[in-house]
From TrEMBL:
SUPFAM superfamilies: Protein kinase-like (PK-like) (SSF56112), SH2 domain (SSF55550), SH3-domain (SSF50044). Residues 1-50 are annotated as: Disordered. The keyword Ribosomal protein does not apply. It catalyses: L-tyrosyl-[protein] + ATP = O-phospho-L-tyrosyl-[protein] + ADP + H(+). CDD domains: PTKc_Frk_like (cd05068), SH2_Src_family (cd09933), SH3_Src_like (cd11845). This is non-specific protein-tyrosine kinase. Keywords: ATP-binding, Kinase, Nucleotide-binding, SH2 domain, SH3 domain, Transferase, Tyrosine-protein kinase.
Amino acid sequence: MGCTASKESGNPQQAKQNFDGSSQAARTRSPTQSRALPPPPPEPEEEVDEGQLYQALYDYDARTEDDLSFKKGQKLKILNNSDGDWWQAQLFGTSKTGYIPSNYVAPCQSIEAEEWFHGKIPRQKAERIIISNNDPGAFLIRESESKPGDYSLSVRDGENVKHYRIRTLDEGGFYIARRVTFKDLAELVQHYREGSDGLCTRLTKPAKHIEMPDTGGLSHKTKDQWEIPRDSIKLRRKLGAGQFGDVWEGLWNGTTQVAVKTLKPNTMSVEDFMAEATIMKQLRHPKLIQLYAVCTDGEPIYIVTELMKHGSLLDYLHDKGRALRLPQLVDMAAQIAAGMAYLEAQNYIHRDLAARNVLVGENNICKVADFGLARVIERENEYTAREGAKFPIKWTSPEAAMLNRFSIKSDVWSFGVLLTEVITYGRIPYPGMNNAEVLQQVEKGYRMPIPQGCPELLYTIMLDCWKAAPEDRPTFETLQWRLEDFFVSSEANYNEADNIMQ
């Protein structure tokens, strides 16, 4: 992964011209004229501070005239990194400059620039990455979420994924099997690429990254000033319709695919929406749909967000998602819990968590959407008809439905209902019951029975979400790790190369 800063010295064509000119001059030179001057010295190598040179981790196509396009693996010289999300850079070896998303690059020679390093990810995500479009022997190294500085090797063995703890030496260095140690992780990887040496298989190619990182807004220009001109958005294809507006696939600035939610006139006041949207835009997490920009200069209001390939989780479960099996369904639920755990940590309430408000991208990536909109709409009295069709009674906790007491714990109740949607491929909750019956029966202690094919352990999680007292319900942080570890029995699932070599 060399990041050598060098240029070619001289121009061969120019040298030829100089040589030919010198020969002609020699034939016409006067006897007293001295011989030709020597060619100029080569240009000095470009001086580059090692800390300025970065490597591209992904391809990036410029979205505005101020952006800089680059390809994965190219080197970039960072000119200004004072903005956390967008840096000014120069494509190394060229005069091209522009803004780049800072999370698309990593310092040359750093572990983050290695194709096999995937950062802090849970074991379940590592397995999803490796199984997706990778051959046997595909591998990655990940950092422990719970123990910073500790690493694990995950490798595909047939249809399974094996995990190995990478242990650290007191004097520096790493090992999997104590009999052979390495000065760094790159040396460890190279060793096991040459032969399995006690692992389940020889390491072949690094596992492909299945998620592109979110950029900090649409561009450097719109990052802080996110009211965009309506004519910069072209609506291309209607994706769906809801009670508060339509959702479209759109194109921003002629370059960038986006999703556009068009709110029906008089759904909410511009002032209330902008107050809430300002908060929503600050909420940034890989499992939340990112709010890019808005158009509020007229009706309908546009809400511009990232585009997810498969649309809502509910629609996906009704269609292509029917091929999903239990491990994939539980993994998707864990992703949703991760997004909600972030909102929980920010003291933010969703108020309308359901499969219809979760979006699905490639490789079953799930992100929570529409957080915050329910609060604005309620201010505009859209949700006051508690018995009406507009209010999602079947997803709402008793204290929220009866007393209007919304909290993160009422979101936990809704998550339990969402779990039934996931495990039943989008079945409507409380089948055969209307809203009034649901309110009455739940208040008396009724809970949905275990869905067909649902593991007892998963049903236990649902029941925990439906505890009558809000304070008795689990946190989303707890729900996240329970679902991430659903198929894991902790230490027993790590393989030891020493044991294999017995």
